[in-house]
Amino acid sequence: MQIPVAFQTVGLLALSNIFMTVAWYGHLKSLASKPWWIAALISWSIALFEYLLQVPANRIGYTQFSLAQLKIMQEAITLTVFVPFAMIYMNQPFKLDYVWAALCLVGAVYFIFRS
Q1: What is the DSSP code (8-state) at residue 85?
Q2: How far apart are CA 102 and CA 30, in angstroms?
Q3: Which residues contact 49 (CB under 8 A, 6 or more apart)?
Q4: pLDDT, tens digit (0-9, with 9 covering 90-100), for 35-57
Q5: CA nearest 71: which of 106, 38, 109?
Q6: How does pLDDT run across 7-28, given as a tens digit for each residue?
Q7: Alpha-carbon gap, residue 29 to 15, rounded angstroms
């Protein structure tokens, strides 16, 4: 059974975003006492896995979605991954601004995907 392109794309982008978020922001907590270049090397190592998932996600997705749709999809997934990461791993408080940002992205998704 073939997995639909939309599910492949969203799944790979979601996994890619997890690696991206950890690479970009995880070092702020876990490597705060280390020199920046150590954090950079570790982040680049983690980011490799982001690209190993993101590139095929976009190639697969581009067979069905426009470039703009892929970008907006990526941004919506980014917020979906970032908010729990910020709250759970980084111990940031929930902010109502997350809801407003999500609503703006819902609008962006609507406008970019309408025919």
Answers
A1: I
A2: 27
A3: 19
A4: 999 999 999 999 999 999 999 99
A5: 109
A6: 999 999 999 999 999 999 999 9
A7: 21
